[in-house]
Amino acid sequence: MDVDLMIRVFPYFAEAAWTTVQISVLALALGLVMAALGSAARLSRWAGLRFLGTAYVSLFRGTPCLIQLFVLYFGGPQIGINLDPFVAGVIGLGVNIGAYMTESIRGAILAVARGQVEAARSLGIGRRQTMAHVVLPQAARLMIRPLGVNAVALIKGSALVSAISLVELTYTAQRYIGSTYKPFEMFAIAALFYMVVIYGALRLIAWLDRRYAID
């Protein structure tokens, strides 16, 4: 193992790791927005909205994220959409993970005991107020773990954006392999940075789970 080489390239990988963190955080934020809209549509009383929510989940969970990134980045210019790799990566990853998070949020809302909803309605509390003050506070606590699992999957999946030339951890490793012919060292240091980022995410998820756990 060429330790000296790993030490020399370490700063470049640290910079690439920061890009990985940025794209993961922004994609997660977009994914949460998409998931909130998707779950609201899936639970709507109107059949048209339920159809749209189901179509969104089916389309983005039923096709590879890599293909979605290719369609957005390489196919976009054909219809007048020109995006730089970072923006395309955030949108592609965010919309994709939003489809998975839609089911996590929907499942957490449905897990709240139906009797509590009926009790609130029997007291004259409106549908929206019941959702805002009875269902969502409890569902939010149930969402932490499944959404955390999705967040970790998103960080791992961020390696896919290397295929659209975004200079993040995986792309940086591939680039240095081309000039050093040291794949073991380059992928090892990339894996180390991924582990650090994911460990930080897991610690944050565990803290949130303890902080807001339902007794």
From TrEMBL:
Gene3D superfamilies in the cross-refs: MetI-like
Protein name: Nickel transporter
Family matches, as PROSITE patterns: ABC_TM1 (PS50928)
Major localisation: membrane
Topology class, membrane: Multi-pass membrane protein
TM spans (from-to): 16-37, 49-74, 86-102, 147-167, 187-208
Keyword tags: Amino-acid transport, Cell membrane, Membrane, Transmembrane, Transmembrane helix, Transport
A Pfam family matched in the record: BPD_transp_1
Function as written in the Swiss-Prot or TrEMBL entry: Part of the binding-protein-dependent transport system for glutamine; probably responsible for the translocation of the substrate across the membrane.
Family membership noted in the UniProt record: Belongs to the binding-protein-dependent transport system permease family. HisMQ subfamily.
Domain of life assignment: Bacteria
CDD domains: TM_PBP2 (cd06261)
Start and end residues of each ABC transmembrane type-1 domain: 17-205
Localization, UniProt: Cell inner membrane; Cell membrane
